TrEMBL record:
InterPro entries registered for this protein in UniProt: SAM-dependent_MTases_sf, SAM_dep_MeTrfase_SAV2177_type
GO biological process, one term: methylation
Superkingdom assignment: Bacteria
Protein name: S-adenosyl methyltransferase
Extent of the signal sequence: none
GO function term, MF aspect, one: methyltransferase activity
Annotated keywords: Methyltransferase, Transferase
Length: 262
């Protein structure tokens, strides 16, 4: 009997599903949960870090909507959970349009299921490192007007991409495509002061399809080349425009986050 190859291999952990497991979601397999559990042994704060990252995403989208942005390109969008970009954006701006992009077929499948027949959103299965291809897809052409400001989201994704000309060209491509007034939100893993936990996490993820590349603050800042960081600049994720006043101890979240303006 022949078998039909499936795009999703439940035995191969994926960054999207490991993250879903860390967030307490149920769109993941045993192999993903095993990596999530091992990651939490290495770095017990990691589920909190994942939740804090989602909170940054929510605040960044709300900020962008408050600045009048009505269209979003969510690159490395992952598996839908609470406070997805279209929900947060529409709470502030009904009718906001969102194009979700992920290279993981399971993230794309779950996203399509959640979005159903919502005509103001679309999900593209693509590698974000090819901006020309992403922006040439018919959903992107139909939903996004690149003559108007756009919110580009690269949240908890660039630390899965190694340095090199591909990444530089991709960042340049999105910068060039973005109209003045556009915003770019990035959150990114940084090394712990004792390098051991992040080294061990990188080692763990190297056994998945998505090796982890932690970058120091200078290198994360350079991801914003061509953009001007809005206040408060590049800061530990929970300190970026917190809902409830100043946050202390956010360095332990090992994440830097910022929003740049074109
Ligand atoms: C940790 S999840 C983050 C999800 C979401 N952005 C968030 O912050 O909640 C990272 C996602 O990036 C996706 N990803 C990694 N490399 C990618 C690439 N080169 N192109 C598109 N998606 C990518 C993974 O498949 C995964 O779904």
């Amino acid at each position: 009997m022949s078998t039909v190859p499936l795009p999703i291999d439940p035995n191969r952990p994926s960054a999207a599903r490991i993250y879903d497991a860390l967030l307490g979601g149920n769109h993941n397999f045993a192999a993903d949960r095993a990596v999530a559990a091992r990651a939490a042994e290495i770095l017990p704060e990691i589920p909190q870090i994942a939740r804090a990252n989602r909170d940054f995403l929510r605040r960044a989208v709300r900020y962008a909507a408050g600045r009048g942005i009505r269209q979003f390109l969510d690159l490395g969008s992952g598996i839908p959970t609470e406070n997805n970009v279209h929900e947060v954006a529409r709470a502030a701006a009904p009718g906001a349009r969102v194009v979700y992009v992920d290279r993981d077929p399971s993230a794309v499948l779950y996203s399509r299921h959640v979005l159903g027949d919502d005509e103001q959103t679309a999900v593209i299965e693509s590698d974000l490192r090819d901006p020309a291809a992403v922006l040439a897809t018919s959903p992107a052409r139909d939903l996004l007007d690149l003559n108007r400001p756009i919110g580009i989201l690269m949240v908890a994704v660039l630390h899965f991409l190694p340095d090199g000309p591909d990444l530089d060209a991709a960042l340049d491509g999105y910068l060039e495509a973005a109209a003045p007034g556009s915003l770019l939100a990035i959150s990114h893993a940084i090394p712990s002061s004792d390098p051991e936990p992040t080294d061990r996490l990188a080692e763990l993820y190297s056994r998945t399809g998505t090796p982890l590349v932690v970058r120091d603050a200078d290198r994360v800042a350079r991801l914003f080349d061509g953009w001007t960081l809005v206040e408060p600049g590049l800061v530990p994720g929970p300190q970026w425009r917190p809902d409830d006043g100043p946050v202390t101890g956010a360095e332990r979240f090992l994440t830097l986050a910022g929003v740049g303006e074109r």
